[in-house]
Amino acid sequence: MGSGTTVTFGELLNWCREFAGEAIKVRTVPFHIGEQYQHWTSVDMGLLAQHYPDQTVSDKESLKEYARYCWASHK
After folding, report:
1. Helix H segments across the chain?
2. Using CA of residue 63, residue 64, residue 66, residue 71, what is the dihedral sign?
């Protein structure tokens, strides 16, 4: 989500399921690239945060609340 806070795809999907209040349809695909895949990423968003101070997220719970806001505004 571009926050600098590490979240797995599984966590993000669980959040979406929680936000939806029901099961969500997820289609998995074969995973052929194994060790070449970057399973998670976490970037220092400090410079961007200087330009968008109201959008900063410093921990996973804050990120989840921001994701909840995004979910509600895009359904």
Report:
1. 9-20, 46-51, 60-73
2. positive
Tell me the pTM.
0.62
- The domain locations on the chain are 1-27+44-75
Question: CA 47 to CA 70: how far, in whole Å?
Answer: 22
Contact 19, 25 (CB under 8 A): no
At residue 25, the 3 state secondary structure works out as coil
Q: How far apart are CA 15 and CA 67, in angstroms?
A: 8
Distance CA 23, CA 16 (A): 9
Q: What CA dihedral angle connects 59, 24, 33 and 35, to 10 degrees?
A: 30
Res. 2: pLDDT tops 80: no
